[in-house]
Amino acid sequence: MPAAVPPHKTQRAVAPAADRLRMVELAVAERPGFRAWDVELRRSGPSYTIDTLRTLRAEVGAAARIVFALGRDAFAEFETWRDHAAIFTLCDLVVLTRPEQPDTLALAYFPVAARGAFRYDRASAGFRHGSGHRVTLQRVTALDISASDIRARVRAGRSIRYLVPEAVRAYIETHGLYVPSRRIRQVE
């Protein structure tokens, strides 16, 4: 799901929304259970996770399990997110380990205001929110891959093969995305 206007990434060049949506479609095309969703592109203004989760919850209903995955680096800044405490009431969170970030999950890493709403859950080796939703840690192979690094590699003329699905790599190359000569809009 590409963001229309990412609130935490101001002053950054991004590819046009239609291109970013197409790359997501290509990335998930052969992955059952995944789909590209343009909900944030159809909304005006900044793309806040809380708004997207509320829209998804309304679409799938209260009984459906929603799992929101985010990097450990993003979780470290979670208290700066709009209405972050409400996010815990809408879905389970899976925090993915990232290089240069702690590979543990402790209550001390949670936003201060939210800590009282969680209890350690031995069954999931994570934390259960009062709403019943969980926050767990998923250790992943320590590959330092990020969207900003991929864009920088393309700008520098370096290969991104094996860092993105082949269909996405070909799309970026074919459409000249992220290269200095292509005019791109600035997110404000």
Task: Kindly describe this structure.
This protein has seven helices and seven strands. Residues about 185-188 have low confidence and may be disordered. With about 190 residues, it is α/β, with parallel strands linked by helices. A five-stranded mixed sheet has the order 2-3-6-5-4. A two-stranded antiparallel sheet has the order 1-7. The protein is globular, with a radius of gyration of 18 Å.
Largest sheet, strands/sense/barrel: 5 strands, mixed
Number of strands: 7
Count of helical regions? 7
Sheet with the most strands: spatial strand order: 2-3-6-5-4
Q: C-alpha Rg, in Å?
A: 18 Å
> What is the mean predicted local confidence, pLDDT?
87
Helical content class = 25-40%
**Looking at the structure, what is the overall shape?**
globular
Low-confidence region ranges: 183-188
Give the class from helix and strand content and strand pairing. alpha/beta
- Give, in order, the helices and strands: EHHHEHHEEEEHHE
Report the β-strand fraction as a percent range: 5-15%
- Give the N-to-C terminal Cα separation: 20 Å
Properties at a glance:
188 residues; alpha/beta; two-stranded antiparallel sheet; 7 helices; 31% helix; disordered C terminus
Layout of helices and strands:
Elements: E1 13-14, H1 17-28, H2 39-42, H3 49-60, E2 67-71, H4 72-75, H5 84-90, E3 92-96, E4 118-121, E5 126-129, E6 134-138, H6 147-155, H7 166-175, E7 185-186
Helix pairs in contact: 1-7, 3-5
